[in-house]
């Protein structure tokens, strides 16, 4: 229950402000797409999220807790050293990105996209909360990428909660629809961010690419970011001509 309450708090507190920004038209110069979602579409997203979180996420957390305990997860003192926490968090991000990439590509096959993943793509103009708007089957399928790292390492509960917080903040940022001067992708070369993932939502499933969750190296290695890189090159060329 603690994990569920922490997740809900971080998710909605970080995601709801982007609905306000879109409705109020604030910081619009940093918005990636000019199109806005209607209040009805935003409210539909919130209602579905609450339903899915209580009917899918919460039972999954309850069922997975004994597994984490069996694999060695602790919740008592002493707390792990910062070196252990940092190494585990880095490992979780790398492993999650790898598993998510392949799972995401599978979801973009014709049948699975039509019957499962198309729910997530109902929002071609994503906003923060759409990061977890998905078919229940997809929540379970791609949720595996998030929990597999902690499940096999048996971390301290504090490490697990830190990982959950960082993962939620990352996926909300990737779907926020804004690319700010302070966005992490401006400072971390391998980090995808909102601009990278927003491209994925704008295109048809057969041509989307940019399947990774956090980083860009998997798409670069397997050539699934060529359309995005070509578009960026054309945009940069056009910007340089204007200056």
Automatic annotation (TrEMBL):
MF term (GO), any: monooxygenase activity
TM stretches of this protein: 6-24, 45-65, 85-103, 139-164
Example GO biological process: lipid biosynthetic process
Residue ranges constituting the Fatty acid hydroxylase domain according to the UniProt record: 90-224
Cellular component aspect of the GO annotation: membrane
Localization of this protein: Membrane
Keyword annotations from UniProtKB, A to Z: Membrane, Monooxygenase, Oxidoreductase, Transmembrane, Transmembrane helix
One Pfam family, short name: FA_hydroxylase
Domain of life: Eukaryota
InterPro entries per UniProt: Fatty_acid_hydroxylase, Sterol_Desaturase_Related
Family: Belongs to the sterol desaturase family.
Annotated protein name in UniProt: Methylsterol monooxygenase 2-2 isoform X2
Designated gene of the protein: LOC111303661
């Amino acid at each position: 229950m603690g994990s569920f309450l922490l997740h809900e708090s971080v998710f909605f507190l970080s995601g709801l402000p982007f609905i306000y920004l879109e409705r109020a038209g604030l910081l619009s110069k940093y918005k990636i797409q000019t199109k806005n979602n209607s209040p009805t579409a935003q409210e539909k997203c919130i209602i579905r999220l609450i339903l899915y979180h209580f009917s899918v996420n919460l039972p999954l957390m309850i069922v997975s807790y004994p597994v984490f305990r069996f694999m060695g997860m602790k919740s008592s003192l002493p707390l792990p050293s910062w070196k252990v926490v940092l190494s585990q968090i880095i490992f979780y991000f790398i492993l999650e990105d790898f598993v998510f990439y392949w799972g995401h590509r599978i979801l973009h096959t014709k049948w699975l996209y039509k019957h499962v993943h198309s729910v997530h793509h109902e929002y071609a103009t994503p906003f923060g909360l759409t990061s977890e708007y998905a078919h229940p089957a997809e929540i379970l399928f791609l949720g595996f990428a998030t929990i597999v790292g902690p499940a096999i390492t048996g971390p301290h509960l504090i490490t697990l909660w830190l990982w959950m917080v960082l993962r939620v903040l990352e996926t909300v940022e990737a779907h926020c629809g804004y690319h700010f001067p302070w966005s992490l992708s401006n400072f971390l070369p391998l980090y995808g961010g909102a601009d990278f993932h927003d491209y994925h939502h704008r295109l048809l499933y057969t041509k989307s690419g940019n399947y990774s969750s956090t980083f860009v190296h998997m798409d670069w290695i397997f050539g699934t970011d060529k359309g995005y890189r070509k578009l960026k090159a054309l945009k940069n060329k056009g910007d340089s001509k204007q200056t």
